[in-house]
Structure to design on (428 residues):
């Protein structure tokens, strides 16, 4: 139909003239097809974007609408031109060489456009992650942005290899060379790459986040920053401790922020002269003290057994749950008891409030019943050295021992055997 219209409007001699080996008629048909296809694609794109923006404003599938709108916005003119040219060449029935040329052009343009679309979707995901996590975990956002950059580099590397392969360049040797170079680089920076992937593991798996209190080996503190290479922790004594991410994940981490309740084991001892009946009553009194603590919901509170009601300005202990109390065994200087209870809040200061209240309650309860706490003592039994004499007289033996003890204090004037007597003084 279009050919007949052209034949009526223009002279057949001009239409049959060859330009670059293609008749002028075919060039005109291609131009008309390009115009029609381009207008159709432009109108379709504008209509889709208008509908998507309506969905975004009405919050109907807002995230999906935003993603598709971003993809359409990133659609470049060279891709639309290549697509239009390919469709038009098919419509006008170009020769085989022309069709091959337009198909190659469309393939190359599609590769470039696909790279822009994929990187655009990565940026949309990073923006959404940033909006959700920026206030709660800024370091995780920083790490994910760096990981997003690495992902974009990987995407464009693959696109570049495919582009070179489509224009006739043999990329096998290039890929082999890159593989050998990659191994060398990987060996050189394996520690850095290990910390980088450890950072990715921390961000995705979330064994801890900023603000958590951790114990790593003998160190303990609060997480301040999670980076690509290292994690920084503010210790309890104030200094900053820096861990590499790889070493941190290889260690055994205790996250106290995830604690829901705290198990406490309390041990004490009473003196050996405590009557057995009082010993048997100790576990029950301990239970009454623990279960009689005030909780956050009990503002009036119950005084621990044997004590006065707590003062109004005293710290309110957290809710606790009694587990068990037993007479555990016989110690070196005490009768030992073991008590287990749970503090139902993770805060350490609240736990110490509960421990203080229980200790005071035990002091009052045991003092009211005359039960004394034991402390390390040692009793020495001194035995006399008196031994019976051979004739059965211990007293003579003692006397003899006493006279022997006094012998070194006496001076004997007699010379010892073999010694000469001293010469008398000269009268002159």
């Amino acid at each position: 139909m279009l050919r007949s219209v052209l034949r009526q409007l223009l002279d057949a001699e001009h239409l049959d003239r060859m330009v670059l080996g293609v008749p002028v008629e075919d060039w005109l048909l291609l131009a008309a097809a390009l115009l029609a296809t381009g207008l159709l694609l432009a109108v379709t794109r504008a209509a889709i974007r208008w509908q998507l923006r309506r969905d975004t404003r009405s919050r109907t599938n807002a995230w999906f609408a935003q993603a598709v709108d971003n993809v359409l916005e990133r659609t470049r003119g060279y891709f639309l031109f290549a697509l239009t040219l390919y469709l038009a060449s098919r419509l006008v029935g170009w020769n085989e060489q022309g069709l091959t040329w337009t198909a190659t052009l469309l393939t190359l343009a599609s590769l470039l456009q696909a790279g822009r679309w994929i990187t655009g979707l990565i940026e949309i995901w990073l923006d959404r992650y940033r909006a959700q996590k920026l206030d709660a975990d800024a370091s995780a956002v920083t790490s994910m942005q760096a990981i997003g950059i690495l992902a974009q580099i990987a995407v464009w590397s693959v696109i570049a290899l495919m582009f070179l392969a489509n224009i006739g360049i043999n990329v096998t040797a290039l890929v082999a060379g890159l593989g050998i170079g990659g191994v060398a680089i990987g060996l050189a920076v394996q520690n850095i790459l290990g910390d980088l992937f450890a950072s990715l593991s921390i961000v995705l798996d979330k064994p801890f986040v900023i603000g958590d209190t951790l114990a790593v080996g003998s160190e303990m503190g609060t997480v301040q920053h999670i980076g690509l290479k290292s994690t920084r922790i503010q210790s309890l004594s104030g200094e900053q401790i820096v861990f590499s991410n790889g070493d941190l994940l290889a260690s055994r981490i205790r996250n106290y922020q995830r604690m829901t309740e705290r198990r406490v084991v309390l041990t004490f001892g009473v003196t050996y002269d405590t009557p057995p009946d009082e010993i048997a009553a100790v576990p029950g009194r301990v239970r009454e003290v623990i279960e009689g603590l005030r909780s956050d919901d009990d503002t009036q509170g119950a005084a621990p057994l044997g004590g006065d009601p707590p003062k109004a300005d005293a710290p309110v202990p957290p809710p606790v749950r009694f587990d068990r109390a037993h007479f555990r065994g016989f110690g070196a200087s005490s009768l030992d008891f073991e008590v287990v209870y749970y503090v139902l809040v993770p805060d350490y200061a609240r736990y110490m409030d509960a421990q203080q209240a229980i200790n005071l309650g035990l002091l009052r309860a045991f003092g009211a019943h005359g039960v004394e706490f034991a402390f390390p003592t040692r009793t020495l039994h001194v035995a006399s050295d008196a031994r019976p004499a051979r004739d059965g007289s211990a007293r003579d033996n003692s006397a003899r021992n006493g006279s022997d003890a006094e012998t070194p204090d006496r001076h004997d004037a007699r010379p010892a055997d073999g010694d000469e007597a001293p010469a008398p003084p000269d009268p002159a």
Remarks:
- Residues 2-133 form one domain.
- The first strand starts at residue 18 and ends at 19.
- The radius of gyration is 47 Å.
